[in-house]
Design brief:
There is one protein chain. By secondary structure, the chain is an alpha/beta fold. It contains 14 helices and 16 strands. The strands form five sheets. It has a six-stranded mixed beta sheet, with helices on both faces. The protein has a three-stranded antiparallel beta sheet with strand order 5-14-13. A three-stranded antiparallel beta sheet has the order 10-9-15. The radius of gyration is 29 Å and the shape is elongated.
Length: 468
């Protein structure tokens, strides 16, 4: 028995999305014999499957005719082992239109599955293996220059790996550039591609469409309006590719390239844009048949047979070093833009303070609140202010005895961060200084509800209830 690597294949079954577990160590039985009857049975049934299901009907008919001709001419007569038959058959079916998704494999050998094993246990073992691989995410780190780096090997289904994506994108949100390393990524689930791309666009973007022969239908993939955590629509993005980068990984790169959202660095990718599904044919053999094709909304085309051309062509082994050098000036520029925006916002806040104070003194608190809310919302939207920044601002006003202005700021913080216990704690203190005991108690209780371990809220409630 020998161990070989095979591609992770982007699979979308009819009516459902799934991930074919590959790109792992695959145990192939060197000695498994194939009979003439099994060869004939495979070609008969695979031919019909290609005719009925292959995304390009005429091509499917051509492939079926070719392998039947090869069979009738005795090309496969001398083949006695399954491993050799899968290799020769894959070469033959790919020879017509060079679709790299089309391939024949030996059944029942994934994950070293043994004959007679329990399917439920096999599924659990596959899940356990995926969890052990962190669902494809091999490395996430911050490189010199505050540049985020993500090395991942496949796009797992969001239902399984969404929490990983949320954690990773949260970890990266304060970086000044991101490098996505797809050099060893063989593809995966299109919904995961959609999710990850959604973090990189602010507006609604049509990423990709998939045409399915079955039902003659098109499924569109758009960025999500909202994601868990923060979107990063302006951060510089770099994608590393190799000639191994394939299928769904190519879609990720192609989506970002056609929308001018990323710089692609490395080698031209593998060139597989036709998703489909695995079909068991005989006891020992199965065939992957592409039943759909990608259609990019910008180009009207895809990367099938051509791959994704990088902006900067270098050998795959050099791609990371080149990306780091390329990213540094962009990261510096992005960081400077954040500082410049912060300076402008701070200047605007200071220039607004006097107007707000005059409105408060004139009893026009509602008008003052609207002005300050708008200013603070700009800071939050541009990610220049967070909960703690706004909280500190409120306490600055509180220390200056500008209690009503402080309350405006604390009220905004509660509105912007309704699940943060500290925002209610601070607003409670402002109400207490303002002399509104009822509102102070209400906000301290809310803070304690969100965080039962908030000792300050406990102490203040005891004090307020003892001295109503």
């Amino acid at each position: 028995m020998r161990i070989i690597n095979i591609f992770l294949i982007w699979i979308i079954g009819l009516g459902m999305t799934t991930l074919y577990q590959a790109n792992y160590l695959f145990a192939e039985n060197e000695d498994l014999i194939i009979s003439d009857s099994e060869k004939k049975e495979f070609i008969k049934r695979a031919s019909q499957g290609l005719i009925d299901r292959y995304v390009f009907k005429e091509v499917g008919e051509q492939i079926a005719a070719h392998i039947n001709k090869q069979l009738s001419e005795g090309v496969y007569d001398s083949i006695t082992k399954v491993k050799n038959f899968t290799r020769v058959m894959t070469e033959d079916i790919q020879s017509i239109n060079h679709d790299k998704h089309l391939r024949v494999i030996e059944r029942g050998r994934h994950m070293n599955r043994q004959p007679g094993s329990d399917p439920l246990l096999d599924q659990y073992l596959r899940t356990l293996k995926s969890e052990g691989e962190n669902y494809g995410f091999q490395k996430v780190e911050i490189l010199p220059g505050n540049i985020g780096y993500v090395d991942f090997r496949y796009f797992a289904a969001p239902v399984k790996a969404r929490d990983r994506v949320v954690a990773i994108m949260s970890f990266l949100k304060y970086t000044d550039a991101i490098i996505f390393d797809l050099r060893k990524n063989g593809g995966g689930n299109p919904e995961m591609i959609q999710l990850m791309c959604s973090y990189l666009f602010d507006e609604k973007i049509h990423l990709n469409s998939l045409y399915w022969r079955d039902g003659d239908r098109i499924v569109e993939y758009w960025t999500h309006d909202e994601v868990e955590g923060a979107k990063m629509p302006e951060i510089p993005v770099f994608v590393l590719t190799s000639n191994y980068t394939f299928s769904g990984a190519e879609e990720f790169a192609y989506n970002l390239k056609t929308r001018e959202r990323a710089t692609i660095i490395g080698e031209t990718s593998g060139g597989g844009a036709n998703p489909g599904g695995m079909h068991p044919i005989t006891e020992n053999l199965a065939i992957f048949i592409p039943t759909g094709r990608a259609i990019n909304p910008v180009t009207g085309k895809n990367w099938e047979g051509t791959g994704v051309e990088p902006h900067i062509k270098v050998m795959a082994d050099s791609a990371l070093a080149v990306a780091l050098e390329t990213a540094k000036p962009d990261a510096e520029k992005y960081k400077k833009s954040k500082i410049d925006k912060a300076k402008i916002l701070i200047s605007d806040i200071h220039s607004t303070e006097n107007a707000v104070e005059k409105l408060v003194r004139a009893g026009k608190t509602g008008e003052a609140q609207e002005i300050f809310y708008n200013m603070l919302q700009i800071g939050v939207d541009q990610k220049l202010l967070n909960e703690m920044d706004i909280n500190r601002m409120g306490y600055d006003y509180l220390r200056k005895d500008n209690i009503e202005t402080a309350m405006i700021v604390f009220k905004f913080n509660v509105k912007a961060y309704p699940t943060a216990f500290n925002t209610y704690d601070s607003l409670g203190e402002a109400y207490m200084k303002y002399g509104n005991t009822e509102k102070a108690i209400e906000n301290y209780k809310k803070s304690l509800e969100l965080n039962p371990n908030n000792r300050n809220a406990v102490n203040m409630l005891e004090q307020l209830n003892a001295n109503p």
